[in-house]
Amino acid sequence: MDNFYYTSPSELKAVTLKEGFFKEYTKLVQEVVIPYQWEALNDRIPEAEKSHAINNFRIAAGEAEGEFEGLVFQDSDLAKWLEAVGYSLASKPDSQLEAWADEVIELIEKAQQKDGYLNTFFTLKRPGERWTNLLECHELYCAGHMMEAAVAYYEATGKRKLLEVMCRFADHIDSVFGTEEGKLHGYDGHEEVELALVKLYKVTGNEKYLNLSRYFIDERGQEPSFFIEEWEKRGRVPFWNVYEDRKPELSYYQAHIPVREQTEAVGHAVRAVYLYAGMADIAALTKDEELKQSCRRLWDNIVTRQMYITGGIGSTHSGEAFTFNFDLPNDTVYQETCASIGLFFFAHRMLLMEKDSSFADVMEKALYNSIISGMGFDGKSFFYVNPMEVWPEASAKNPERRHVMPVRQKWYGCACCPPNLARLIVSLKQYIYTYNNEALYTHLYIPSKTEVLTGEDVFTLEQSTAYPWNGDIRIITEFKKARNYTLAFRIPGWCRQVKITVNGENYPLEGNVAGGYVSVTRRWKEQEEIRISFEMPVELIQSHPEVRANAGKVALQRGPLVYCLEEADNGENLSALSIDTESEFEIKKEPDLMKGALSVTGKGVRIPDDKWENSLYQPYKKQEKDVVIKAIPYFLWGNRKSGEMLVWMNHK
Q1: Catalytic residues
Q2: Does the pTM of the predicted model rise above 0.85?
Q3: Sign of the CA dihedral 66, 72, 76, 77?
């Protein structure tokens, strides 16, 4: 099928990670995180919230007795874990991991109903209420995540059982939903199945799945509203609070108007970016220019009006949602790990359609900051919320800040983020490069080697780097036979100065930079070397003046990394500190924090609290004392003792 894809991503098995930053993370996920999450899903982690996910499938499969427990979307936690297993096995065989996966896939197959339906909540708890509350009950959301798991596991192992289970379920869904008479003219309250059906289409070639995805996107927001009609049919009784009869707020579900008319990201942040990722998929595959432009408008609104400096989204804990343009509070922010991951997925799909480095810039920003901050270095503790400012006492005593955890948790009853993070890290290889017959694009600077087949020619590209700690990249290429080709390298948006050499000779940037990429076009032969150096100074970043939460404040950034202050380095009451904008910053190694980690220190002042006696207020007088302020990478916070944390700081 002809499409809008400008480039194709490298296949997972065509890329090998080398020693470096994300090799360590991948190893942690494979050796610690995935086995730990298996224990969590089996409810075997002491003092952690119960999952119930696997036990629900055991009951639905007829292999255990009991009742459904957990949240209505509990199946999705297991699905994301299975997807992570698939990606892990594609890189590293593991007989124990594969045995666990096969064991649970047997349960999933047995739990599937004769007509293809699969959902443990409705099978066990409300068998007569299937497809009666699409607004709130996540049936298609759970289906979508299991479809993604099926594709990942099949591509890694060649085993078809879960894939066939999910094809049967997708066929059932297709028989229920559509424009035809007698079918439900509906869609899910929590988008996800849209992008999952595209993956199912790509691996099976069955266009029915592509058309079903397009249907869900096109039907969303049409009048009369499916969600309102459904709510009326249920007697206006909601799922979560049976005493509330308030009319559903359609914008929360991105269903207030058709998707092609939407210009501003609204509602639940994860739902939104999953929808936009699915929209981008359909736009590309069906050459839908109108839908593509809708994606672009929504993208621009997010990154220029509603995104945190860390690449996080979702300003409020009330509904885990976007609020309005420039509303980016630091102390009550939600910035869910899943939302950042969803934004990463959306960015990558846009990148496949357009030669525009700004998409990869956001991928990088989210990846190194608001995504990996969601997991501790032990691989057994996780953040759901990624705040920009933490005051532990306020988290404990202020109801508006109780969602802001000062320490990572062992697990969550609603555990969407931990397995989501695991599946992204072990699949990260497929996001580093894209290519077509004319060029190979390097989007992320991660030590790796990729083998690329274009036409009948095979060549390899290998990159070595200590990124993100420094901006020096070494590229070795090997072409089996001489050919004309372009190798394009992203110039990060944070970079002010770049130098490139090819086989030791300076390569001119003028005339060779377009869309944020420098293109090295030449006749390549055998083994050649490219060296890239991105200048990586410490910078003070300020916000748009309409971001009121950051008025008079700055943040520290070096390369792709946003920095923060922690109480462990700077003492209590971080809000009393002000950074000196004229300070010369010093970079220091911090081996106790992480291999290769660098801190930033600079001059500043502190307002002392020992001259206030018993007064709460007093006339202004200058009384600061000089101090040294130390900042660490944001993603590293919370790996020491519990304490305050601050990203945006006062300045003088």
Answers
A1: 320, 416
A2: yes
A3: negative
